[in-house]
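> @MW can you paste both from yesterday?
MW: sure, first one:
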Amino acid sequence: MQPINRTRIPKPRIVGLVVLVGLWVMFAVWQRAEHVHQCRLIHATLSSQGDALSTAVSNSIQSHRWFSPFVRQQLPSTLETLARSTNVLAIAVVANGNVEQSYVAGDERLIAYELPVGEHVVENTLQRVREFQMQNDPPMPGGLSVAMERRGTESFRSVVVLDRTETMSQFYLEARSRILIFVLGTLLLASIGAVWQFTVRLAQSEGKTRLLTAETRHLRELGQAAAGLAHETRNPLGLIRGWTQRLVDAGLPEPDQQEQAEAVIEECDRVTARINQFLAFARQSELQIEAIPMEDLVAELKTLLQSDLDAKDLDLETVGLEVQAIQADRDQLRQVLFNLLQNAIAFAPEHSKIRLSMRSSHSGTFRIEVADQGPGASEQIVDTLFEPYVTRRPGGTGLGLSIVRRIAGAHDWDVGYRPGDGDGSVFWIDGIRGASTVSNGNPMASVNR
């Protein structure tokens, strides 16, 4: 199976993310356009009111034949009536461009006479300015000459001032509504995206699970086949070694033949030892958990390895083994410590010290460390120390540390390597539970791993 590149985002996720971002942008643009449209409608309502009032003012004046004293007298009351309409702050009519001849209803201070014709927003007001004319057609009394003198065109300007406070409130409510809709829409899109991503990941996880299950089954079958082959290989090896040993014991006619026969026996023993190591690595044995005094177990191992220690004049120092008993499978823990100590002996320089220590760890469990004063592991192989058939020891098989990791995993322990404080190597096992810890929790007689 190819390794998974965790830094690369899968293509379906990129496409889905682009689609969601595109939908989100389209939704935001749509809500923005709707907000602008609604604001225009709200403004148009107020603008229509101003236009209607200015039309009413012009019609009230243009409905007369001429701008007579009677019209001038009635104009203020007409403006007062119009000024009582909703949102109206002031109304003014200026005759012939002379502000002094203006007629005003409402708050005159709000009126901006200098504005051009059209619609203008001044602070919180909307001012509608309109110009119109009326054709004077006075009656005939006083003579034709007098009537002709009064004929002509008069120009007027009307200014309607409307309050925009209510309109601004409607703008605010509209903006708040659009923001709420946008937020809810964003949450909905995010939820849809999350559900889609979860569905994609679930499908990918199911595919990976099926692939890993098939690969695990294949590796298990391959391991069983290899273990069976190794087991069957020991039988002919034993037969070869037995017959060769009989020849050696009987004596061969030539010294060269005797030496070659002894070499065959030595190679058979070596291959058998390698097969036994492989079977120890591949075998999934049942754990027999019990309380183990570390002092007694290490004393047995020291006796077993004493000849190797004496060969290099090494001193095995133990620290903290008297703390308390631990919970483990005795034979497998013995195998772990044997492999680690044998590895330390192989790399420790002559006349040096090997230290086996046990202490409490931060999690309330125990930690065992085996330290030597050898050269240490190079950075190139640190990450592969516990992989099968990776070795830095001449003549080694590369299965010793792999067996350590497999046994540690079966016990739910952590195993690792770190450089020594000054020099050398330190192999550690962490997560070892004490006898009292396990007995008070969930005691186990045996665990089938």
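MW: second:
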Amino acid sequence: MRVKKFASIVLMVGVCVSILAGCGNSSDDSKSSGSSKGGSNEIVFWNPFTGPDGSNIKAMVDEYNKTNPEFKVKNVSMKEGDMYTKIPTVVNSGKNIPDLNIIHAERIKQYKDNDMLQAYDDALTDYPEIKAENYVPESWNIGDLDGSRYSVPLDIHTSGTYYNKELVEKYTPNALDDNIITYDEIKEAGEKAQKDDVSALGVTWMKPILLSLYKQHGGELSSDGIDPTLDNSAMEDSIALWKELYDSGITTKDGEDPYQLFVAGKVMFYPEGIWMRNDVNEAQFDWGLTNAPQISDDLSKAVNWSSSHQFVMFKNENRSDEKTKGIMDFLEWVRTNSLEWAKAGQNPATLDLLNNDEYLEMPQSMFINDPAMQETLTIFDYKYNGYVSEYMDAHALDVIFGKAEVSDFAPSMQKEVADKVAKDNSNK
């Protein structure tokens, strides 16, 4: 997603509970609800790319279709919320099921447990290069459940920190020598910058920031994969740290637009996702991209929140073996032709791009071009991650801005998520 206004981000995440990237406001490419049906020699491909990245996925599909495959791909981009609403309806009805779908990694477990996904195991037999060694591990591993493969990754997108190089040089010149900015370094720089009306840190999308901090503090969303484990000191310490930063006056304020202030040169560190790269290019100064803010400067302990767009096949009795082969032909082509997706500000999951100089010059490639950096990428694949996201999106900023109590944040989230999980399981 490319959105400039933080207010727009807050509105969107109510719908995009799994991940911000890839959402948008445009209608699907088919231009009408009925035209998402495909012919016998078409692969109907649903995806949630309706923002600027929609043009990138369309360009990729168009390029593939120019290779004259036996089964051409019909690109159907739709609003994320609409797509996720339609999926259970069409799968349960057995009608108009897409041949291929992009979903967010956090949804794989739930769809698999609901017996909605077709495993790739048999289809992969004739495609030996679609294998773990050729993909970023965190993006590949999430599709492996109970010994079967249920997805193939398109990308792994990460929340890091953009920074103003001139301001860093002025207020904390050696902080990024190790490519890590710690919260202690941010505090120190912020105290120096206050006199110049410069904020050290933008208050942006808190969910990925808090989840990163939570894991840094040793927290886990669930110990058994079902019941949440959120009411603990790790969660309270995570939200309390940001409240402390805000109260100290070194962050952007309630009502301010951190993006606009960053590109105007009034914010030193702007924690956001790699999908914002093309927007940040509007800044009239030299900027860089580094890890998300960390507690420690030890890279082996760093946590960079990530998610992944994944190719899945929903169960469909009408999908022929020939069409499945056509789908695999497309996925193999994507594995070696993903530069266009990188141009959208994303990190394709395929390691094939590590041989591409144009990609390696892109700032987001820093998360992929070093195995040690790949180890920092963390997808929070708790089955009920969406409920955690909903709570954080609705309440984290209120706590930071002093409209709610720090002490209420973790226990209230625990109760809300646990209640929703219990309700889901009681309905089965």
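> thanks! The radius of gyration is 21 Å.
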